Amino acid sequence: MKAKKKTPSQKCVICIIIILAVLAIGLTLFASRKNADIMARWSRPTLCYNQSCLYVQVASTEYQRKQGLMHNRNLDEDKWLLMDFRQPGIYSLGMRNVLIPLDIVWLDQNYTILYIKNTAPPCTLDPCPVFASPVPARYILEINAWIAEKIWLAEWETFTFTK
């Protein structure tokens, strides 16, 4: 049996189908990448407490922890910095080059509040004051001053953390 020769209009239809298939595959890949970007934005780490959920930036390297919130002139009320020290210990925090007052919260490995330093002022003295928890903690949370009082943070209460 002989194969029929395709007419120019049939060839054109086949080309259009191939082009549409390639476009559909490309758009699907683009959309999935775009959705991944959107999901990454929506799935930022959050800490929740008493129905208040706030975004956290996690500082897990020594450099990130040392930088902390130095040189920030303002901090959004719903954005916090969570320093992860990986192991519990007595960790202190100085306010050198910190330009705004902060509430500093020490947490254990379960995100339970161990100690709160309310309204640590920016450093205007030399040497700068250093603040530490009296008990070992794994995390230090830096937030805008007065937020701890505003959302009623209390020692031995627990945050929930979502990555």
Report a brief summary of the structure.
The chain has 163 residues and is α+β, with helices and mostly antiparallel strands. The protein is built from 3 helices and 9 strands; from the N terminus they run H-E-E-H-E-E-E-E-E-E-H-E. The chain has 2 domains: 36 residues; 117 residues, Jelly Rolls (Sandwich).
Topology:
Layout (H helix, E strand, L loop, with lengths): L7 H35 L3 E4 L2 E8 L2 H6 L11 E11 L2 E3 L7 E6 L5 E8 L9 E3 L4 E8 L2 H4 L9 E3 L1
Parallel strand pairs: 2-3
Antiparallel strand pairs: 1-2, 1-9, 3-8, 4-7, 5-6, 5-8
Structure report:
The protein starts with 7 loop residues before the first helix and ends with a strand. Helices cover 28% and strands 33% of the residues. It has helices at 8-42, 62-67, 147-150, and strands at residues 46-49, 52-59, 79-89, 92-94, 102-107, 113-120, 130-132, 137-144, 160-162. Mean pLDDT is 80; it is low at 32-42. It contains 3 helices and 9 strands; from the N terminus they run H-E-E-H-E-E-E-E-E-E-H-E. It is of the alpha+beta class.
CATH architecture of the largest domain: Sandwich
| Fraction in helix | 25-40%
Shape summary: elongated
- The chain-level structural class is alpha+beta
Described by strand count, sense and barrel closure, the largest sheet is: 7 strands, mixed
Q: Spell out the CATH superfamily of the largest domain.
A: Protein of unknown function DUF192
Question: What is the number of strand segments?
Answer: 9
Mean residue pLDDT: 80
* Beta-strand content estimate: 25-35%
Rg over C-alpha atoms, rounded to the nearest angstrom: 26 Å
State the distance separating the first and last CA atoms: 64 Å
Which H/E pattern describes the elements? Answer: HEEHEEEEEEHE
CATH fold assignment of the largest domain? Jelly Rolls
Task: Specify the number of helices.
Answer: 3
